[in-house]
Structures are given as structure tokens and as C-alpha cells.
Design brief:
By secondary structure, this protein is mainly α. Helices cover 61% and strands 1% of the residues. It has 26 helices and 2 strands. It has a two-stranded antiparallel sheet. The termini are far apart.
Length: 564
Amino acid sequence: EAFEQCAKFCYGITITLNAFNLVAVRCAADYLEMTETVEKGNLIFKLEVFLNSSIFHGWKDSTIVLQSTKAFLPLAEDLKIVSRAIDAIASKTLVDPSKVDFSFTYLRLGSTKTHESSEINPSPPWNGIQSRRHQSVPMDWWIEDIAELEIDLYWRVMVVIKSTGRIAHNLIGEALRFYSLRWLPGISKEQNLGESMRGNNRTPARDCIEIAAKHRILLDKIVSLIPSEKGSTSCSFLLKLLKAATILNASTSKIELARCVGRQLEEASLNDLLIPSLSYENDSLYDVDLVQSLVEHFMMQDQSPPISPPRAQQNYEKRRTRSAENIDFMESKRLSSATHSSKLRVAKLIDGYLAEIARDAHLPIFKFTALAQSIPDFARPVHDGLYRAIDIYLKEHPGLTKAERKNICRLLDCKKLSMEACIHAAQNEQLPLRVVVQVLFFEQVRAAMKGGLLLHELPGNVKALMSSQEVQSHEGTSGALEHGWESVHQNFKVLKGDLASTKAKISGAECSNIEQEAAKSSKLKSVSNIPSKPKKFLWKLWLGRNLSDSAKSCVSSTRPSKLT
């Protein structure tokens, strides 16, 4: 068909050219050497003018031309059609959305990765083609059209777009997420990577191997395009890619994705962490080693802070003060380090993951304890989640030895258990007796504290244990806790006697208080029997008045006798 178009041009017959057949005609004309040296205004010259003046000025035509070059490689590459089409597409992605006046495909009505000023019309045109006449243009208007490209061409376009440095890294991440949903099985809920690799029962093993190799190349290309900035892609999407890398055995991508996920592990969900294990060494259901590596990458953020930049790398950097460099260093350190709240969220997430994998009957105890110990002590202010995971593991593994039960229970801090967890632990037959004694002891101390017993009134051994708890809650050390457990186990009878003596002292103090109150009440009664001063004064007046009246009567009675 392309050669037929060239023949019609030679005979002066009008030919029809568009973005779909232009590359084929251009390659045929080059093969026939229809250049300017043969004749002025030959076909190659006119095709180049049409490409530069019309095709590469349009968005849709540029993507169609680039897509059609795949069938004519490497000739299309030698003619620089591929590179020019890529440059044309990349330049149009940099256009201000308010100045986009060409049509583009945008069917993601529920997308949340649009610009704040973008308003997506809930009722798009019937053909799904958006135009600036209908609504404002979103920032990610270009994502869907270039997602139709093959991975090799798509990778080259994205490399050029990233090299400009003018596209936000979150838009790059959204473009990669959409492309993965479009082409990589197992990323979306509707697709399953395992079924895609196996195919149906009639698919030969050689075809399955080829499909897996194709998907592995696709995954490696996508991972290589992920921006290095934290938060450019969601943690859920990265974990889906990590799951695909595990199934496809893409070791290089698996290492890079583990590093990316570790930087934002606090955003992960429990379902995303449940990555199946494909190892032949054990029969575990989930890849616990991979999750532990994610936790290690997350915790290593504080141990390897960024290096402060040198003072004189460029001429303009020589004028920068040391304070300005320190501000940049502290800001980069803050962005690269994990906050305390994020560590608390990761600890809660891992406790939930431990409770989920504890149901696996083939999970070795050393993997369970290693993952539980990867979380620092200060990140677990409450051990209820860890106790739940240990309780499930003990119930699902009844064949554990006594030493193994003690080993796994050493992960618990009984002082950090809630009232409900303590009640459950006190009645739990799966726990060693030593742990039950510790739970009952600290619950008794806690009840004594709530009953009004002050800290300085406690015996010395008990006070030492309580102070070690406070130190651990602030410093996150675990050595004092283990020493406290041994002290409780060895000196429990002594502590019990101290508590009994303390109760006796309290009861004696209460008796003395009662006697003092009784003495005070008796004094008040005696004082209440004494008349008050106003009553005494009136009584004296009344008594004096009676005496004066009696005296007057006596005088009146004696006076007549004297007169007579």
C-alpha cells in the first residue's frame, strides 16, 4: 500500500496522507530514493514538510505517528521520525493547561490526582474526548493518550519528560500508576498476574515463560521511571509492584521497590503487606523476610541522614552563609527521617501483620520473633497487639517446647498491657506460669497505686521495678526490663512479704487515724457542753436582778417597824 502511494505520486495522482499511513509512505519513499537530487519537490521533501508543519503540531497525530513507527524499525529510527515524535509529545506535556486548545482523552472521572482548579464534568461527551470548550483542563490531561504506547516508546517519552524537570513528581507517579494498571496484570483488582502467566490449560510452557519475561521487562522499565522523591507514588501502588516483582522473580526491581516502600511504610495497609512466599526453602504462606527488610529500610532513615552540601561547588554557592546551608541540611534531614508518629503507626501495622501470619502453621518461631524485635521498644507504648499475635501463635503451634514458649513470651512487657489484656493473660493456659505471675504482680501493684498508695510508700524492690518502667517508656531500653523480670521471678516471696508489711502499716495508720478522729470528737463534745459567753452574761443579769428584788422586799418589810 505504501509503494502504491509512491507510484500514484509519480504519475501525478492525488494521494491521501494522514498520521496512520505517513510513516509507511515515508519509509517507502526513502527506500525508492525519491530525493531532491532526482527531482525538485520530490515526495520525501513534501512528506517532511507535512510532518513538521502539520503532524508534529498536533497532540493526537504525534502519538499516532510514534505508535506506528514500531512496525518500521530500525528505518524509522534512522530517519529520526521516532526522536522527533518523542520531542513533539514531550514539549506538549509542558504546555500550560490553560493554553491547551487541542483534544485529548480523559476518562478518569474519579481521579483524585488533578489540579485544584480542575473541574471534571460528571457527564463527559459521548466519545470520551475532552476539549477546553467543555471544561477546564486538568494537570494530568496527557496521561491516558501516551499510555497507549508500547513500553519501549513509553519509557523513552517519560525519560524526556522527566529530564525537563518541569513536571511535578506526583504527576509522573500518577502516569506510571495508570500505565501499570493498563498493561501489567495483577496490579488492578480485575486482573491476576498468576493466571496471566499460566494462561489456560492449553498454553504451552514455552509461551508462559515468554509471557513472564515480557512482564518482567515491563516491570523493570516502570520501576526505573519511579521518581526518587518521597510521596511521588502511593505506598499501596509500590507494594503491588513489589508483589508483582516477587512473582516474576525480578530481583533488581524488588530491591529498588523495597527501598521505596521502606521510606513510606507508615502509609501501607495490612492487606498490601500480605505478599505470598514463593520460596522452595520453606512452606510459609507469606514472605516474612521481605516485610522485615521493609521495616529495616524504614528504621534506617534516621541512621543515615543526608550529608551537608559543600560550601563551594558553584560560583553562586560561595555567597551562601553557613546558616543557610544548615537550614537546607536540617530540612533535608527532616524530609528523609521517620517521625515518632510514623514509627507508632508502623509498629501498630507490624503487630497486626504478626497476628495475621501467626495463623500460618509452617511459620518458624525465629522469623516471628525477629520481625517482632525489629520494632523498637518506644514505638510500642501498649503491648496489646503484640500479646494478641503471641496468643494466636501459641494456639496455632501447640507443639512448641517449653523453652520456645518462654522465648516468644520474652517479647512481652507485662507493664504495658491494658486491664483487658491482663485479665485475659491471667486466664490464658498457653502462657508460661512465669508470665502469669508477672501479670498478676504488676496488676496488684497497679491496683495499689490506684488505691492511693504513693510511690515512695512502696517497698524498695517494687519501687525499683516501677522506676525501670518509667525509664523504659522514655528511653526505650530493654535491658532494665529483662533484669526486672529476673528480679520478680527470684524475689517474688520477698516482695509478697513487703506488700503484706506495707498493708499492715497502712491498716495501722488507718487505726491511728480513727483514734485521733475519736479523740477530736470527744473534745468537741466537752467543749459543746460549756455555755457560751452571751448565755453566761444573761444568766448573771437575771441572777443580779433577782437578788436586787429580794433586797428591796427585805428593806420594805423592815422599814415600818423602825417608824413605829
